[in-house]
Amino acid sequence: MDQGGESGDDSEMEDSFSRSLCKKRLGLLLVSLAMTDFLIFMSLSVLAPFYPKEAESRKLSNTMSSLVFGVFSLVQFVVSPIFGKIALYTGVEFLFLVGLFVGGVSTIVFGLMEYVEDSFMFMSLSIIIRIFIALGCSASNTASLIIIARSWPSLLTTLVGILETSSALGYMVGPALGGALYSLGGFILPFIVLGSLLVIAIPISWLLLGKREKCEIVVENNNYGLMRSCCNFNFIAVSIAIVCCSLIWAFIDPILERRLNSLFSLSPTIVGLVFLLTSAAYALTAPFLGYVVDRRESLKIPFLFSGFLICAISFLLLAPSKWLGLENYNELWLCLLSLILLGIGSSLTIVPTFVLLLQSMTSHKGEMPKHSYVAGIWSCEFALGEFLGPVIAGSLVDRIGFSDCLNYIAIIPISMFILWIFMYFKMGRNSPLKTEVRVSTSEETLQSEGADETSSLLNEKSVHRTQIYT
Asked: Membrane-spanning residues where (predicted)?
């Protein structure tokens, strides 16, 4: 009897130790994902304070320089769903690390554009190299979403919020660091520093990821089932919201620097700090909002339409809008306030969208295919908006000016506010977008509020179709 008791105690201690070790591994994994998301989004925003001026010195218009900003997201739009599916076969860790390598090396090469004086060559090479940067960063970003969805099914919104905070911090530090390094060492220095950091992150990420256990999953080849899951009104509405969220978020990147210089004659370093405000407001609010949504899922849609309303107000103040009688009120403090509001509004709109997209899709049998598809689709839709935002902004500013451009673009968040507030009050209690997230494994269905964060790694999978390493 004593031996049996001792055996039971030993088994319980081993199980407790395994769970503790698993939680530590998950914590290190989260650090790795957050760190790389931070660097990835720095590479997207680092050129904002000085690239438009460099393009202008080579006789390129707002529209042309906006293409360099937008092509990053255009590539992300095209390849994110593909990477979501590739991850099932190559392994998520492999996709993650290779993406960092391609993105880092390409970022270093982009710095060499300083030595290209011809306008056509400068524009062409800028776009080509940004495509390679986008391929690498998209691979890593899509892989990180898949890993989050599989490793923490019960804390999905909170951890998406944390990754969004890391991304926002990258957006925030990118322009500030870019402006400072540009002032210190010219065009090449920001890209050499950032590209080197991405390359250095590869061995660090590999060590933090550690030796991942083999996971056996169902790979569904039923493309009809996937298409059917996307053919419903909720999915279409959420997808439009995601595109509009990212369009709003990226809209001012290529046009704000010239506006600030024309009104206030600010240095690249100060311009970088001004860009910091929007991302800082986003970074400070995203984790809190993710935490709230995980515990009060009924707030997802109210957060969404409230965020669109705040974004509309921020655009009208930034213009400043003739509709508000502020057309001649060009004050720096009003500009700064509008950028802070834009960050808060963007946080309210972006954070709930991943879970809303997950809920809007018809359930698949295998957990991993579903999350990989959702991660790819979400990244694809977000990237589409990030491409459209800068391109539309540059085109409109060249044709109708900064103020009128923001007046008219404010119609987008106003329209989304009206659509989602109407949907919220017209939805029934049992609408998929109002129900709690349920994450399925082979043994049971885990409800969002009650699932243990270690369950997806500790549970044995009973199915066997395809083996991957995550």
From this structure: 26-51, 63-82, 94-113, 119-148, 155-174, 180-209, 230-252, 264-289, 301-319, 331-359, 371-394, 406-425
How far apart are alpha carbons 157 and 432 in whole angstroms? 16
CATH classification code of 16-450+459-469: 1.20.1250.20
Which secondary-structure segment (H or E) carries 6? helix 2-45
Element (H, E) at 339: helix 332-350
**Region 5-34 average pLDDT:** 60
**How many CB atoms are located within 10 Å of the residue 26 CB?**
18
* Amino acid at site 75: V
What is the reported pLDDT for 414?
95
> For residues 304, 305, 308 and 313, what is the CA-based torsion angle, rounded to 10 degrees?
-140
Residue where the block lists tokens 């080579």: 58
* Of 163, 214, 146, residue with least CA distance to 33: 163
How does residue 154 score in pLDDT terms, banded at 50, 70 and 90? Answer: low
Q: For residues 329 and 273, give the distance between their C-alpha atoms in angstroms, rounded to a whole number.
A: 22
DSSP 322: G
Q: Which DSSP string do the residues of 87-98 spell out, in sequence order?
A: HHHH-HHHHHHH
Give the distance from CA 463 to its chain's centroid: 32
Domain ranges of the chain: 16-450+459-469
Q: Within 13 Å and on the Cβ side, how many CA atoms surround 176? A: 14
Which amino acid would we find at residue 57? S
Global pTM exceeds 0.85: no
User: Number of helices (H) and strands (E), helices first, in the chain?
Assistant: 18, 4
| Residue 244 near residue 385 (C-beta atoms within 8 A) | yes
What is the separation, in whole angstroms, between the first and last Cα of the chain? 42
Q: How far apart are CA 29 and CA 149, in angstroms?
A: 13
Rounded to 5 degrees, φ, ψ at 439 are -110, 120
Contact status, residue 286 vs residue 165, Cβ threshold 8 Å: yes
pLDDT tens for residues 428-459?
A: 555 556 555 544 433 333 333 333 333 332 33
Please check the confidence at residue 13 and state whether its pLDDT lies above 50: no
